[in-house]
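User: What would this chain look like folded?
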Amino acid sequence: MSSPLVDELQRLDLQHNQWRLTLDGRLYIAPIPDPLPPGYEVLDIGIGTGLWAIEFADEHRNAVVTGVGLSPVQPSFVPPNCHFVVDDIEYDWVYDKQFDYIHGRFLSMGIRDWRRVFQQSFDTLKPGGWVEYQEAEPIFTANPSSPKPNLEMAALSDDVQEAATRIGVDIRQAHGWKGAIERAGFINHTLLHTRWPLGPWSKDPKEQAIGKMNQRNILNGIEGLTLAYLVRIRGDPAEEVRQRLERVRAEMKDPDVHMYMDLYVHVAHTPA
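Assistant: Here's the prediction, encoded as structure tokens.
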């Protein structure tokens, strides 16, 4: 039976599969050993449904995967080398071990102090350990060749960004993390920049597939992603916001409105 929670968990799993398609089937791009040595410690922060951690543990039986998140919504049946912890990564990280690899994904709408996250990642890694942040800037931009502008989505993106800044969250900063990551002590930083179209308008077959998935993802998730910012923080009337989101959804379905979202994967490691 469907429910708002079930629908959201399914949306997050769809989003996970978008990432896998983006990375050509991979879960990560960091050059960690293959095969992994026995007891390779992995920390996944902001786990969502836990699917990334579960699949990593399935594919790397030598790994010991710890997933950390705010909500205990992960399945109880998981690989024996995977377990989950309910915790808030914005507070002090307290673990009885250090890790070889840390992975985080899609956290930009909830983290206030990324410099602290970078520093705690560095302090929690073993010498030579790798970190990988797979992040999006959840702002949709009209493609230069779009037959029509994305007026409704552009205005909504601006208002969500403005609301986020009121609580200290910058949702448009992922592109510029290199300096902060290096100041935390990491070296050999690399950056992958890609995009997710919204809808199947791209001529590239891979982007078309991603665009179809992304359209479904955002159509199903846009209310949950924006309502709290606009109603609770800005004070906009809930019914007006819902009417506005209907106009945004109509624009998203318009085949003549071509827009996309930027994604960034930051990879670096600690000195050996």
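The CA atoms of residues 200 and 209 lie 7 Å apart. If you want, I can go into more detail on any region.
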